[in-house]
Amino acid sequence: MRNRKKRWGTLLAAIAMMTVMLAGCGNSAGEQGQAAEEKTLDEQVDDIVASMSMTEKVGQMVMIGVKGTEVNDDSLYMLHQYHMGGIILFDRNMESAEQTKKLIADLQAQAEQKVPLFIGVDEEGGDVVRGKSFLTPPPSQREIGQTGEVTKAEDSADKTAVALKKLGFNVNFAPVADVDSDARSFGPDGEQTTKFVQAASQGYEKNRVMYALKHFPGIGRGTVDSHQDISTIAASKEELEKRDLLPFKAIIDERQPEDYFILVSHLRYPAYDAENPASLSKAIQTDLLRGELGYRGLIITDDTEMGALAKHYSFRELGVRAVTAGADVVMVCHEYEHETDVYLGLLDAVKDGTISEDRINESVRRIVKAKLLHAKTEA
Predict the structure, then answer these.
(1) Mean pLDDT computed over 59-88
(2) If pLDDT is split at 50, 70 and 90, which confidence band does 222 have?
(3) Which of 133, 222, 300, 355 would give a disulfide with 349, using CB separation of 3.0 to 4.6 Å?
(4) If you ran DSSP here, which 8-state letter would residue 289 be given?
(5) Strands 273-277 and 268-269
(6) Phi, psi (5° rounding) for residue 214?
(7) CA dist., res. 226 & res. 222, Å (int)
(8) Residue 307 gets which letter from DSSP?
């Protein structure tokens, strides 16, 4: 507890400095600094959100993939025209450590936004890793789980976070919190998997790198790859609560909500919602995750270009349905056309009243708060 208080104190000081930079002209640096120090974190967040246009706010709620290994006209257009608030990088963007570091630094510097970008990556370990030529791949979660040594999960997350932070990343889409015998999971036992996920979370938090528990409410029982099409988890509420939900619930109960995302899956869970996949389900995101489990942090969708969604919905409606269900950030990883459609669909939904401004502000406050706490990376 003392370490957490100390960490938050350090972060608040850093935020105060950032607020000085974000403040308007007209006051001396000393006056701005004094004003920043007098404001609470939430007050600073409210000031930033109030200064944003609706086009800026909607952009904060979309995380995209970009093409190329350096900043170009296309990526800058997405950042300037649509104010996209987050970028996820893949191997197509990462040739070397130096190039990746420069790309991230350039994206941050040229985004021209009121808060830094989320810059994320999928560095789970095992088969799901990026930048193998210059990043040491972490062991698979299954390999770590089989050792029975919980500390290895924290050590692996710690090393991964350090390596990513040096490049400029502030988000890693890991650990996998699914309970399963697959290599991406720590194991098939709910309680044991929970212990490893808890340990991994500490490794990321130690380095102020946001992490993402995935894939809520658990895809360990799935039989169809979501990249291809949607599938159904037939388990009852009781079965899901006794096993699949355990890792998520443990982190929600013990960790600060601003330190991590929860990434929702594209699978369908009839025990909660017989019609909609989790990423588009109010019953799962709002009623279960926010209501029953009490989660107050950021909810992000899995990639909406996966077949589980893309084969059944238009991109103009996908973002609207996800946000209406409870998501704060909609992820679109590949095509600029699809990313644009998600953004414009959301903007149109605000204009016609389908999504209220209050609902947008709710998500943007969470996003800005998390960014102020985690966006500072090593030079």
Answers:
(1) 98
(2) low
(3) 355
(4) I
(5) antiparallel
(6) -140, 150
(7) 9
(8) H
What is the four-CA torsion angle of 153, 156, 161, 163, rounded to 10 degrees? 180
The string of pLDDT tens digits covering residues 149-163 is: 999 999 999 999 999
Closest CA to 330 of 64, 27, 29: 64
Terminal CA-CA length for the chain: 29
Q: In sequence order, what are the beta bridge partners of 214?
A: 176, 263
Mean pLDDT over all residues of the chain? 90
Tens-digit pLDDT profile for residues 323-374: 999 999 999 999 999 999 999 999 999 999 999 999 999 999 999 999 999 9
**CA 139 to CA 184: how far, in whole Å?**
10
In three-state secondary structure terms, 274 is strand
Q: List C-alpha distances in Å: 363 to 12, 136, 199, 298, 306.
A: 21, 35, 28, 8, 23
123 Cβ contact list (under 8 Å, min separation 6):
129, 130, 135, 138, 160, 164, 172, 173, 174
- DSSP assigned state of 125: B
**pTM across the whole model:** 0.89
Q: Distance between CA atoms of 300 and 278, rounded to whole angstroms?
A: 11
pLDDT, tens only, 108-154: 999 999 999 999 999 999 999 999 999 999 999 999 999 999 999 99
Q: Could you tell me if 233 and 219 are in contact, meaning their C-beta atoms sit under 8 angstroms apart?
A: yes
Measured from the Cβ of residue 257, the count of other Cβ atoms closer than 10 Å reads 17
